[in-house]
Amino acid sequence: MENRYSSNEQKIGFFKDLLNRRVPQIVGFYLGGGWGIIQFMEWIVGRYLLSPLLVDLALTIVIALLPSIVIVAYCHGRPGKNRWRTTEKVFIPVNLILACVLVFLLFQHKDLDSIASRVKVTDESGKEIEKVVPKQSSIKELALFYFDNRSNDKELNWLKSGFTTLLELDLGQDPFVNTLSPALNDPIRGFFIHLKFRNAGIDDISKAPLMLQKKVANELNADYFISGNYGKKNDAIEVTLSIYRTKNRKTVATKTFHGKNPLLLIDDISLFVKKSFDLPSVRNDDIIDLQLKDFYTHSIEAAKLVSEAVDLIVEKNDWKGAEKKCEAAIKIDKTFTLAYLSLSEIYALNNKPKAWKGMYKYIMKYLYKLPEKSQMQIKAGYYMVIKGKPEKSVAIFEMLTKLYPNDVKNYLVLAGRFFITGEYEKALPLYRRVLEMNPSRVEIYKMIGDAYQRLGKLKDARKAFQRYVDHFPKKVDGVLKLGNMAETSGDFEEAKRFYEKALLLEPDNSETTLEIARLNIKSGDFKGALGRYMEILPTIDDPRKKAAVLESIADYYGMTGQKKKQLHYTEEMLKTYETTIAPLAASILRVIKVDSYLENGQEEEIKRMLDALKTQMSMPFDKIL
User: Fold this and answer.
1) Could you tell me the pTM of the whole model?
2) Between the CA of residue 400 and those of 120, 131, 409, 429, 564, what are the distances in Å?
3) Among residues 566, 530, 539, which one has the least CA distance to residue 551?
4) Residues 576-604: tens digit of each pLDDT
């Protein structure tokens, strides 16, 4: 009993001693002051776009120095004069040294510099523009995939791609996010992302399994990807969204949203995504974040019609149907800028040049609604197509590369313009800049190789293609490029080895078969070439690939002087292509293949076709005629 009372008295005595020495009070003041410093650092980081790691640094220092504060409080907190003891003289310096070592170990390889800078440029009208420009390391690369409709309401099907498109538009305002999605043609990769899912046997890509989404996100070099689903609950839309880390498919964040208006839901979802990544835009008022209804449309029905128009093009190649949908959308919302833009592009590809150019009257009238970057990109197209001033278009894109130096799309669009004009030397540094910003974008080596090949620098082209193959040894496209280079150099044996290697990688790849057949023709083996064409033709389901084989067969019969068969397969090729490409592209293809009709004595058919095309094709496409 006495021992127990003695123990309790010792405990009471210890805590009373701490209070007498004011240890809890001093430590409390220290922790409160430390917390205040951390809060201040968070405000500074958000306001001036400094590294968020500065907050972690401050927290580490506060915790690391706590033992010294406790010792000083215990030894010097009692009222009156207290002498310095040997314990303090040894412990405090050791604690300071250990704190410095800890900070060094934790932050020696971390970037504590600002995560962004401010850039000023002058636009084509003399107006000065200032923008926040993030560092590449602070940008989140995010892949967005179609949302799965888990309700039985087919009226909500438009939101499969609609949610993805709208979220991409909303997040696109944020300079700290770079989004990639199957909803739009992605100029970075040079192909429709949705085709990756189709090639994997997924017809409804909103139902793609998570592992396939991860695979596609990885191929797009996206650090994260978003997957979601939606349904109906109590007359409202219920959306569940999950953010995954691409590397290990771990969930970063997930949340369910409810609401009747999908446009307002997107604003909530977008804010959730930004908060999940703790983006500076959440804390910094200088980064503009417009509500979707303010720069897109206030009408759900108009948004639905535009989304359905895109689905008609992607899923059915129905450009006429898409045209009607967009026309209906602008009747509902006469200020729907992006609907006018979509309709102008559809008119152009439907061979309606007057209607196409007429849309720009409304696009420019309501241009003010859009975010500044979108305004500049549209102006570049306006100067190129409507005003016929390509130099101003190039100047705007050069300005965009300064205001958004980490947005590779601007570099690649500008490089694409130089490709069109044959200025390959100007395109090369733009491609190299993209690689400097993100070395993981190894697909750029293919573009560099193509530029060198067109410049006749075959050695440099081969090096670039080899770099691509070194990164993707199992991808057929790179091996085929090396085969093409060997063939161009006249080394048919080496070319054959590359093509056979490609065939081993993908035995059913029609493109590889075409290359081998073409090599057979160059080697004089015409019969072998035709055999390969006829063998693969019945096995192809993809209309584009089938049309490519039909075109090769037509070329074969043209080379062997069998003109009627050449015309037959040319017409079959054109019919097949017309099911997959826009009317304008089909018209241009007919002009290119006019020699097949000419060689079969069908001058009247040619005259009729060209007269019809003259009324449909305007600048710059009329130059083809």
Assistant:
1) 0.72
2) 11, 11, 10, 16, 52
3) 566
4) 888 877 777 777 777 777 777 667 666 67
